[in-house]
Amino acid sequence: MLSNPNNPKSDRMPHDLQLKVEDHKSFDYKMLPSSFFASIISARRGGKSFLVNNIVQQFQKDRKLRFSHIFLISGTGFGFKGIPPAYKFDSLDALDYITKTQQRIVDYNRSVKDADKRIKSRILIILDDMAFNNTLKDDRIEKLALNGRHYETMDKKEGNGISVFLISQALKRISRTVRLNQDVFFVNNISSLVERNDILDESFYIDTTREGKKKGQKTFEMLSTSKDFRFIAIMMFIQNKRKLEDYIMYADAKPLKDFKFFGTAKDWRDSEDF
Q1: How do residues 203-219 score in pLDDT, each as one tens digit?
Q2: Strand order in the sheet with 248-252
Q3: 29: Cβ–Cβ under 8 A, 6 or more apart, which residues?
Q4: CB half-sphere exposure, 20, CA atoms < 13 A
Q5: pLDDT at residue 77, rounded to an integer
Q6: What is the pLDDT of residues 175-204, one digit of tens each?
């Protein structure tokens, strides 16, 4: 490409751009909104279930932020032994049951003045795209991404509501509506050039100049290849983004020992998972 003779710097690429992983924050589950929607995109064996297990275990060890119920909607349930069988479903129809039940709790709690008598219902839904014929473009999922906070049952400080982890092997299986309205987007091991460019366009080009886009590309490459099972954490809910370091973080997925996320002895009595 020829340079503009009137502006010799116009086509100059930042070859000397020095980027470091340490310039970006490590993801912390406490950063998430009280009710959140997060997508996790990675190829097969990319560490998706490891990452979800890591984050959920941290929540469940936190007495203030732990989920009262965790539901898995998946074709196989592979990788999530910590959920009792009664809370595993293989159809998106389960979303209707979960959201309607939560709405009844919301309505009840709004009618009760005594906070001690309100029902605590902090729900996490894990959606695995293997269950749905390779697509997650469903109106019910989009509704959760757009209106999930409407299911919060008490004061936001209590954190009661519906949060979602949506897991997929491909960006194209998730609707653009969900991608642009979610709170956090975890990605790694993106082999498709088209999907990589979509992610860059949607999340990394906060600076639309030539140099800014180049920095976005190099940041994506650096964080994607810096460590096995390392995910880029795009914190879309953060306001006043001025530079990539403000909202582009990283999260390391680690294989952990099996952990019962929640449930009573009765919930686990007939389970072969543990």
Answers
A1: 999 999 999 999 999 99
A2: 88-89, 69-73, 123-128, 162-168, 37-41, 184-187, 230-235, 248-252
A3: 55, 58, 59, 62, 65
A4: 2
A5: 62
A6: 888 988 899 999 998 888 999 999 999 999
Classify residue 7 by its DSSP letter: -
Q: Note whether 259 and 60 are within 8 A (CB).
A: yes
Q: CATH: 3.40.50.970, 3.30.230.80, 3.40.50.300, 3.40.1350.10. Which one for 28-191+229-263? A: 3.40.50.300
Could you say which DSSP state residue 257 is in? -
Q: What is the mean pLDDT of residues 135-161?
A: 75
Find out whether 223 and 248 touch, Cβ atoms under 8 Å: yes
What count of other Cβ atoms lies within 10 Å of the Cβ of residue 263? 18
Task: Record the pTM.
Answer: 0.86
User: Residue written as tokens 């910590």?
Assistant: 82
What are the extents of the domains in the chain? 28-191+229-263
**Half-sphere exposure of residue 154, counting CA atoms within 13 Å on the CB side?**
16
